[in-house]
Amino acid sequence: IAGFYERRIRRIFPALLVSIAVVLCLVPWLLFPSELKTTGMTAIAAVASVANLYLLTSAGYFAGDADTQPLIHMWSLGVEEQFYLFFPLLLALFGIHRLRAAGWAVLGLTALTFMLCVVVTYLNRDFAYFFPLTRAWELLIGAVLVFVSVPNLPRLVREIAAFGAVAVIVAGAFKIHAGLYFPGFIALAPCLGAAALIAVGGAGGSMVSRVLSLPPMLFLGRISYSLYLWHWPVFISYRLVRGVEVTAPEAVALVLVSVLAAYLSWRFVEQPFREKQLLAGRVPLFKAAAAACAVLIATAAALVTFAPSLSASSAEAQRLASYLSYDEASTYRRGSCFLFGHTDSIDDFDVKRCMTAAHDRPNVLVVGDSHGAHLWPGLSAVLPQANVLQATSTGCKPVIGTRGEATCRKLMSEALGPSLDRIKPDILILSARWLETDLPDVQRTLEALHDKAGRIVVFGPVPEYAMPLPRLLAQVVD
Predict the structure, then answer these.
(1) What Cα–Cα distance (Å) separates residue 268 from each residue in 21, 238, 264, 274?
(2) What is the pTM of this model?
(3) Which end of the chain is more exposed for a tag (fewer CB within 10 A), N or C?
(4) What are the CA-CA distances from residue 104 to residues 145, 196, 221, 447 (Å)?
(5) Residue 428's beta-bridge partner residues?
(6) Residue from 79, 180, 60, 63 nearest 122 by CA
(7) Model confidence over 338-365: pLDDT tens digits?
(8) Would you tell me how many other CB atoms lie within 10 Å of the CB of residue 397?
(9) Residues 57-107: pLDDT tens digits?
(10) Which distant-in-sequence residues (6+ apart) come within 8 Å of 64 by Cβ?
């Protein structure tokens, strides 16, 4: 076990610590104070292999961190490291003479953590995404293959299975998006695709196996860990400087830069430690790793503590950028009049606060998603003579028969049904992040509700930017 952990340290920590060190040196020129604090905290968590647990408490529906944080991808490494911290100890309980029992235990643990993932995803997607136990089954599927003997299969079967596995993985890359219940059942597809590809490769191979064995593929495989570490900082740093979406030619160039950085990291950082050219002894390695971690944690802590003075931006830019840490919860009336579909239920909606009609002044009812929720504070401020009501939920189109999470469907059914009949608003505002494909649903809804309100206004979508607006304004000023 000590040897296993030594190999993990040699494999993971040198390249990880170097990439974090480079990022911490660059971010004072790229980020504003509030962003620097987040980067510092993420760096500390990444060094401690708990970035996923930190992001579990700080990331959410409105978090724009992914657009500005060069270390946010470290969450998956945290899940992996936590898995490898405990999994060897589990196997050690069985020893080498009870492999059959170990196999059944691994299979059972895979099924148990998968079921946990499905349930938690339904209750709270953010939690399921970052929590190690709800992602453990994805790693355990690979462990199950160790205990499963796959016989040599007919060539036609291998070719079809391998092609189908690749197709499933590619489809997942294009079809899985933030609006789905992920990980949950959806994550099963790419994971089983990867497992099937490995199993077929061990059962006689296929044309896919031969393609993946070509020198360019093997090269990418060798540098894949360093490529994981460097691709996100490279892309984010470029986007932070430009402030706009990356074009296709720019993306190709950034991929090449990422591959170059990954190769240099693999050649001059990974390999010397893995081949024991540096710190060949186990004890010196552990001591050096602990010292390097301590230095990085201290550096990141200083970044968190002294972010305003360390930032290279002007005072006016910092003032504008301070709105990056703006808490919208009370403004949107989150959790009562604005529901998070994957964390709140319809029972959390405060009917008395959000949908009580007034008899002495006009009633204005806002129904929709976050693009509708953001209208409420402004309308309340500029229409003091009106009673502005609100029924909003994340990702929830205000149309009859809307699709989405259960909370959304129930809220829209109530708001555009019995509540609308009860309130009879003078103005009904339907606001959402509309897509062109929503137009038939909007038309159908307007026809059904035309006599339910004095006037119906379809509003939105509101402008969206490549990055948070306060950052763009601060960047221009700077």
Answers:
(1) 15, 24, 6, 11
(2) 0.85
(3) N
(4) 12, 19, 31, 59
(5) 365, 456
(6) 180
(7) 998 767 889 999 999 999 999 999 999 9
(8) 26
(9) 886 545 556 778 999 999 999 999 999 999 999 999 998 889 999 999 999
(10) 324, 467, 468
